[in-house]
Design a protein that fits this description.
Blueprint: H1 7-40, E1 51-52, H2 59-65, E2 82-84, H3 89-102, E3 105-109, E4 126-130, E5 137-140, E6 145-149, H4 154-164, E7 168-169, H5 180-185, H6 193-196, E8 203-209, E9 215-216, H7 218-221, H8 223-228, E10 239-246, E11 248-249, E12 254-262, H9 267-277, E13 285-295, E14 301-311, H10 315-325, E15 336-339, H11 341-349, E16 369-377, H12 383-394, E17 400-407, E18 430-438, H13 443-459, H14 490-501, H15 504-515, H16 531-534
Parallel strand pairs: 2-4, 3-4
Antiparallel strand pairs: 1-2, 5-6, 6-10, 7-11, 8-9, 8-10, 12-14, 12-15, 13-14, 13-17, 16-18, 17-18
Helix pairs in contact: 1-3
């Protein structure tokens, strides 16, 4: 007697067989990768001691430790087949050689602050090279420089500088848990922006492992690649293992203030004046403004503008400059505090009065779900536009939405836009970071809040930079476009590439094509290669 297999049964059997073959292939790649690592590591520390797989009891804690955005902690988030936490450069070289050999993608994580999670998430099979154990810092006060491993955080850098000298600082970001590997390769800015430019503007050497596993410094990599990794995103070109920073002079006394004004306290008028003067103030003054909806004194909804400032000098001199250029803020001596530069680092990080070693904490006090977007403005936001912004702020529910506006000018006007891949120089009055963060989990909740950020971004379109509408790489935004399925199209990548880099994008493509012609270092917003440049 014969028998037949139903269509449904056939599909089930085929699916099971396919899954088994896929699992076996994946398992084989995994095993080949691990064997290759052991053969190619020359360290005195066996590489097996820095490898974590899903079968390892510490795998989840290592993976989750540096995830800063809870959007990428869901059950549907892709996870790496292997995590490598190198203790020396040979571990990194082995990871590159072996990933390339077996066909696994690499994600490189320093502090885990990539806004879209690209340092630890991939849509294709991947491993993570997590640099958190590579964080040596050597300060040379004599020549005003520092060698810093890429796994160090900004907080660790600031702490080590302060332990060696009170006459130097470094012009990087405000958040102390940000890793220097990604921060510097994307540009990096903070309160010293108008005095000394970007963090990337103050890099004088670097070491990078290229796609062939070679360790190169500035001399051996060449000036084109050295140019590219200072603002073009290091992950497109290799794995940066360390930076040599040029430290910058800071006075023994600086002055800080934080002043908040609501709409009922002439907040709109003050903001309009700030827009006119913030980029033109003396380069020793940095005043950013944070806008968000708050409850007023009578419980009504209003918008607050918080002005946060660092001045490289004393209060008396600051008040004189402010009364001359920005009297509308009504700054008084009681609003100001005279402190040291390192104390200003604590102040802006929200750690005023705490011991300096709080900067050594690599984890955030709390984590949220969040979405960020960015803009650059070449002229002030019109007064008639502000009410629309306030109305959008009032729509935020069960979340915090804000705009952080940072002034440019000063030193930023003096550096040519082709000096590094970061092009937002003269003509950029200020940058805007749009932020929404929330605590409630759930896909629909996230969609609602992300939609709000997109709505605010769309509303701002007529009033921001154009052709292209510029964006900041370190405020990564996949809404701008992405590479698909492990491939990179020049035409597709130029949509977002021109926003981040303007015309520097083409030089980045040329460098990428030369140093990584197989496009091994790929991610959803990596620099593409071009057959035109190959030819």
């Amino acid at each position: 007697m014969g028998f037949s297999i139903s269509a449904a049964t056939y599909i089930l059997i085929f699916t099971l067989l396919s899954s088994t073959v896929s699992w076996a292939a994946s398992s084989s790649v995994h095993e080949n990768f691990l064997q290759c690592l052991s053969r190619n590591s020359n360290s005195s520390t066996p590489i097996t001691k820095v490898i974590y797989t899903p079968q390892n009891s510490s795998y989840s804690s290592v993976l989750d430790f540096s995830i800063q955005n809870l959007r990428f902690t869901t059950s549907s988030t892709p996870e790496p087949q292997v995590i490598v936490t190198p203790l020396d450069v040979s571990h990194i070289q082995a990871a590159v050689i072996c990933s390339k050999k077996v066909g696994l993608q690499i994600r490189v994580r320093s502090g885990g602050h990539d806004y879209e999670g690209l340092s630890y998430v991939s849509e294709v099979p991947f491993i993570i090279v997590d640099l958190l154990e590579l964080r040596s810092i050597n300060i040379d006060v004599g020549d005003g420089s520092a060698w810093v491993d890429a796994g160090a955080t900004l907080g660790e850098v600031y702490y080590n500088i302060a332990n060696k000298t009170t006459t130097y600082g470094f012009p990087a970001g405000i958040c102390p848990t940000v890793g220097v590997g990604g921060h510097l390769s994307g540009g990096g800015y903070g309160t010293l922006l108008r005095k000394y430019g970007l963090a990337a503007d103050n890099i004088i050497d670097a070491y990078i492992v290229d796609s062939n596993g070679r360790l190169l410094n500035r001399e051996s990599m060449g000036e084109d690649l050295f140019w590219a990794i200072r603002g073009g995103g290091g992950a497109s070109f290799g794995i940066i293992t360390s930076w040599k920073m040029k430290l910058v002079p800071v006075p023994s006394t600086v002055t800080v203030f934080r002043v908040t004004r609501t709409l009922e306290q002439d907040g709109e008028k003050i903001l309009l004046k700030w827009q006119q003067v913030a980029d033109k103030l003396h380069e020793d003054i940095f005043i950013r403004v944070i806008l968000q909806a708050v409850n007023g004194s009578q419980g009504e909804r209003t918008v607050s503008s918080t002005y946060e400032s660092l001045f490289l000098g004393n209060t008396s001199r600051l008040l004189s400059l402010m009364n001359e250029s920005f009297p509308e803020l009504g700054l008084a001596a009681d609003d100001c505090s005279e402190i040291s530069w390192i104390e200003s680092v604590l102040y802006f990080a929200g750690f005023s009065g705490q011991p300096l070693d709080v900067l050594l904490n690599r984890s955030q006090p709390s984590k949220n779900y969040f979405k960020n977007k960015s803009d650059f403005l070449n002229e002030p936001i019109p007064e008639t536009t502000l009410q629309g912004i306030w109305n959008l702020f009032y729509q935020v529910e069960n979340a915090t939405g804000m705009m952080i506006i940072s002034p440019y000018g000063g030193r930023m006007n003096e550096i040519p836009e082709t000096e590094t891949p970061f092009p937002h120089r003269k003509g950029s009055l200020y940058s805007i970071q749009y932020i929404v963060f929330w605590l409630e989990e759930g896909e629909e909740v996230s969609k609602s809040h992300i939609d709000w950020a997109r709505k605010l971004y769309k509303y701002m379109a007529p009033y921001v930079s154009k052709f292209p509408r510029a964006a900041y790489l370190n405020y990564r935004d996949l809404d701008l476009g992405r590479n698909k399925n492990g491939n990179t199209s020049y035409a597709q990548a130029s949509i977002w590439g021109l926003k981040y880099y303007k015309m520097n994008f083409n030089r980045l493509v040329q460098v990428k094509t030369k140093v990584d012609p197989s496009n091994f270092f790929w991610n959803e917003q990596s620099i593409p290669i071009s057959s035109w440049w190959k030819n």
